[in-house]
Amino acid sequence: MVSSFGQMGNHDMGPPWLIPMLRASYFIPCGVHGESNKSECNMFCLDCMGNAFCSYCLIYHKDHRVVQIRRSSYHNVVRVNEIQKYIDISCVQTYIINSAKIVFLNERPQPRPGKGVTNTCEICCRSLLDSFRFCSLGCKLGGMKRGDPDLTFAVKLKHNRDPFFGGSESDESSTPKKIRRTHAFNRLMEGLSIYSSNNDGAESSGDDAAPATPPIFNHRNARRRKGIPHRAPF
Predict the structure, then answer these.
(1) Most Cβ neighbours (<10 Å): which of 22, 183, 198, 230?
(2) In sequence order, what are the residues at sequence separation of 6 or more whose Cβ sits closer than 8 angstroms to the Cβ of residue 15?
(3) Beta partners for 102?
(4) What angle do CA 152, 158, 161 make, to 5 degrees?
(5) CA atoms of 64 and 115, how far apart (whole Å)
(6) Residue ranges under compositional bias (Basic residues) (predicted)?
(7) d(Cα 74, Cα 54) in Å, to the nearest integer?
(8) CA-to-CA separations, 52 to 44, 45, 46, 173, 204, in angstroms, rounded
(9) 70 close to 95: Cβ distance less than 8 angstroms
(10) pTM (whole model) above 0.70
(11) What is the rounded distance in angstroms from the CA atom of residue 147 to the CA atom of residue 107?
């Protein structure tokens, strides 16, 4: 049983949205916006845990945790910087596609590994680098179902942080920039108000006024020598 998003039991197979995300059908026409351009279902909401939806449906998932599913060689992938905030993807091999690090969602069987391959996925036998055990999130889930106690999807975060919300409320780094700018503006206005109240009774004099901007001095003209004076003709 899951007591909270970040605390999972030893026998838990990951967060409740993981299996629905892996099994969802992506890149099919949206049932609502099917006639619109770019209406492929390539989004998944971790809050609703329903079917995949298109970008036009994002309006119905305001303030929800949504990840975008992409494709590589006809296989579904998700970017590491989007998914690692919510689950531990250790032991799963990552790849670089279009300058972005990604992980595959489901297994990609490879019955015959290439020559010289010394490490393969423990579930589907795909060739891997030596430092990894699985080729996809689905294969890691399969390893957990086998009863491996060392595998988990629970994210190990600092104290007082919730992996689902990306941090605690006191964490300034997780505060939206707009809110931080508002706080800074309020502090600035408070400082100006204090300064103004301290100087309400003071009379301004000529010494307190800022000096006028000096005239611009053209050094090029200053270095130019005067010519010989000529008397005007009669």
Answers:
(1) 22
(2) 2, 5, 8, 46, 86, 87, 153
(3) 79, 95
(4) 90
(5) 46
(6) 220-234
(7) 18
(8) 5, 8, 10, 30, 68
(9) no
(10) no
(11) 19
In this structure, are residues 162 and 168 in contact, taking their beta carbons and an 8 Å threshold? yes
- The C-alpha atoms of residue 164 and residue 110 are separated, in whole angstroms, by 34
Categorise residue 189: left if φ over 0, alpha if ψ from -120 to 50, beta otherwise: alpha
Confidence category of residue 157, pLDDT binned at 50, 70, 90 = low
Residue 7 bridge partners (DSSP): 4
Measured between alpha carbons, how far is 172 from 103 in angstroms, rounded to an integer? 29
Q: How far is CA 47 from the centre of its chain?
A: 17
Strands (E), 120-211: none
Burial (CB < 10 A; 0-12, 13-18, 19+), residue 187, is exposed
The single-letter code of the amino acid at 170 is S
51: its two tokens: 């079917």
- Output the six-digit token pair for 100: 């972005």
Residues 40-99 have pLDDT tens digits of 999 999 999 999 999 999 999 999 999 999 999 899 999 999 999 999 999 999 999 989
